[in-house]
Amino acid sequence: MDRYVLLGWPVGHSRSPKMQMAGFNACGISASYECLAVPPEEFSDTVKRLAASGVCGWNVTVPHKERMFACCDEVAGEEARAAHSVNTVVVRDGRMFGYSTDGIGVDRALRHDFGFTELPARQLYLGAGGAAQAAAVYCARHGAREIFLANRTLPRAENLAERIRLAAPECRVHAMPLTEAKTVVRQCDIVFQCTSLGLHPGDAMPMEPTEIPAKMPVFDFVYTPSAFRDALIRQGNPLSAGLEMLLQQGMESFRLWTGRQAPETAMRAGLRENQ
Prior knowledge:
By secondary structure, the protein is α/β, with parallel strands linked by helices. It has ten helices and twelve strands.
């Protein structure tokens, strides 16, 4: 039986196991998929042990995507190389090959959830971690014209801004503290909520929802319920709660692992099981 894993900290909330198992079962593939909570200080040793033990591959979620980039034997995917972020690993002969399926997941989710036919031109990102890196670099490379990066620690946003400039010189990019997001939000076509705020009960909001125009689309990477998203729903913002993105990036991971077209209907049903 092939073994696949999801690595994160925390990770117990994830719906990926049911989604991926639905895909394996629909294709008649004998495989398992499990969650593994890994503290940051144990991450490097853990992935080396998994590769050596015969695990076929894994997904990586917050806060480990940049760590996984550094741990790969080879960063094989172009989007992962550009973003310095890896969320999917394929193991071949004990070697870890890294990819990023987040960007294509975001692109497909934007089209599905909001009906976009092209990527929004001006984008505001709340947070500059692994999810923001993959999404912002992908969007800059594929049509976004201006990107604002707002993060709690300014140097992290500045580092991502420089990476975007190198990957997509034609895209204008600005870095700022998270508290300044309210000053630029009305210039944008969409807000991406990429912080981990909302994963835990009682988390603060990344910005005041009332500062976001009521008709502006908001893409929230945290797909568990949160006070931020509840407030956006009440004021009528078009909202993507991250589930479609999770499905689309998971389907691309499935393809990389198995070499087969992902069974969308089965994986969509698995994702929504017990929702």
